Amino acid sequence: ESVYLNGEWLAPEAAKVSVFDRGFLFADGIYEVVPVYHGHPFLLEDHLARLERSLAALEIANPGQAFWLDLIQQLLTRNHSQDALVYIQVTRGAEAKRSHLPQGPLQPTIFASVSAMPVHWDVPTPVKVTLLDDIRWLRCDIKSISLLGNIMLKQQAQACGALEPLLHRNGLVTEGASSNYFAVKDGAIYTAPTDHLILPGITRMWVLKLAKELAIPVHEQAFSVADLAQLDELFLTSSSREVQPIGQIDDIIIGQGGCGEITERLVHAFHASKR
Ligand code: PDD
After folding, report:
1. Residue 275 pLDDT greater than 80, yes or no
2. ipTM of the assembly?
3. Residue nearest to atom 18 of ligand 1 (CA)
4. What confidence score (pLDDT) does residue 190 get?
């Protein structure tokens, strides 16, 4: 197993960064997760475009498309990866002393590694989620490594026996701690619009495209907490979970508590689109 750190290929335990790295001191950095199927990165252009937007938001220079394509290819070759998740992290870099305001442009710290893709069943087992107040900041569109809110919410969800929190702000469902949500009502799909309150998921975008191809009506419109008990189906999406049906929100059973019909069609369409 080898990981990339600032131009070097290293054994994971040999990869070390400075304690003065702004990623360590301030979580001053961004990341990206790219799924890989049969050795090929999936929707790579879209992931790299989001990486570019995250870097631009922090005013960190992007080493460029060619750099990332080469890095990811080498990472996959060196690790013989077939079905995997590529992790990329860029921090603003290390400086001589701790100072909130960055002291001039620094050499960014670039780290990349690969891990096994979780196994996905043809029709995944429905999971439970728990409704929680979205306590995060107002720039959830940036894929920041500052994930304290997400982690606290994830821990709270685990304590409730739930896979993910179902987050809400001002009465509307935003997203999960590491996923996007879709509701199904009367044959149509609803999901929060891509503004500063959610991460624009690449899987979300792909599922919207698949739904349109299947002639399922799609509304990029947030659904409300008040409507949760009346939903026909609910599912979440992410690079690691793909399309994951949800059978239960706390004590509320969604539909029959199983995988709904529209969700199942999208699960199949998603699996077919990976090949
Ligand atoms: N989750 N929302 C948040 C807050 C996330 O962290 C993620 C990604 C998503 C889904 O985005 P995408 O479809 O591009 O993975 C939404 C990590 C990377 C994961 O679970 O894979």
Report:
1. no
2. 0.97
3. 33
4. 98
Closest-CA residue, ligand 1 atom 11, reads: 201
**Nearest Cα to Cα of residue 216 among 251, 178, 252, 260:** 260
Give me the helices (H) in the chain, please: 22-26, 44-58, 65-78, 148-159, 202-213, 261-274
Mean pLDDT of 180-199: 98
Domains of the chain by residue range = 3-116, 127-274
With a 6 A CB cut-off, is 180 part of the ligand 1 pocket? yes
Question: Tokens 């790219």 label which residue?
Answer: 34
CATH no. for 127-274: 3.20.10.10
- pTM for this predicted structure: 0.97
Handedness of CA 202, 93, 24, 142 (dihedral sign): negative
For the stretch 44-73, pLDDT in tens is: 999 999 999 999 999 999 999 999 999 999
To test the ligand 1 pocket, which listed residue (238, 240, 270) has its Cβ within 8 A of the most ligand atoms? 238
Euclidean distance between CA atoms 252 and 228, whole angstroms: 8
Give the span between the Cα atoms of 12 and 50, in whole angstroms: 26
Pick the CATH number of 3-116 from 3.10.290.10, 1.10.287.470, 3.30.470.10, 3.40.50.2300: 3.30.470.10
